[in-house]
Design goal:
44% helix, 7 helices, alpha/beta, 6 strands, single chain, 189 residues
Length: 189
């Protein structure tokens, strides 16, 4: 009886160890804040200002080179940016939901841009969350490091936007769900 009990305990212990091993959560995203809590709210930042003619011309030229495009003189620019960062609400979503979110972002950005004489772009870094999704979508452009190092220099949120109007007015916002910011800034004279 004692021998059967020892074998039973040994068998149960092995099953327990194996099952614990297979249920172990291994994710590189475990340190990411995925909740719209106070930490997330404090990480959001917004900056507005005005570029002089020289600054405007210089940044437009650099953006055109980076995005391999020509930006019409009378159009505003909207850059939607994605990066890996410690605050990212979308990390908690499934792949299917993130695909839908990316499609919705494209649709909303296109609609706002169309209504406000704006050309929009989607840029992501090589280590951004959901890069596997962005790689398959022609609207998304891989950042060479230009935007990460020179434009979006704060790295606390996984999404950000930059808007530059033809008159030099600009607005930069770090945080997700930013289309109210975009709409408000573009409609403002």
């Amino acid at each position: 009886m004692n021998r059967i009990l020892k074998k039973g305990v040994c068998f149960i212990s092995i099953i327990f160890l194996i099952s614990c091993g297979t249920n172990k959560i291994t994710t590189e995203n475990k340190d990411v804040n995925t909740q719209p809590n106070s930490k997330y709210k404090k990480s959001r930042k917004a900056y507005s200002g005005k570029l002089n003619n020289s600054e405007y011309g210089e940044i437009i030229k650099k953006i055109e080179m980076e995005l391999k495009t020509t930006i019409p003189n009378n159009k505003s620019i909207l850059v939607n940016f994605n990066q890996k960062a410690p605050n990212c609400l979308s990390v908690r979503l499934s792949e299917k939901d993130n695909i839908q979110v990316a499609k919705n972002r494209i649709r909303i950005s296109s609609q706002i841009s169309s209504n406000n004489n704006t050309i929009d772009f989607f840029v992501y870094t090589k280590d951004s969350y959901n890069k596997e999704i962005y790689e398959k979508m022609p609207e998304f452009i891989l950042d060479s490091g230009f935007f990460y190092e020179n434009v979006f220099t704060e790295h606390q949120n996984c999404e950000a936007i930059l808007i530059i109007k033809p008159n030099g007015d600009f607005h930069k916002y770090y945080g997700e769900d930013y289309y109210t910011e975009v709409d408000f800034f573009l409609e403002k004279n």
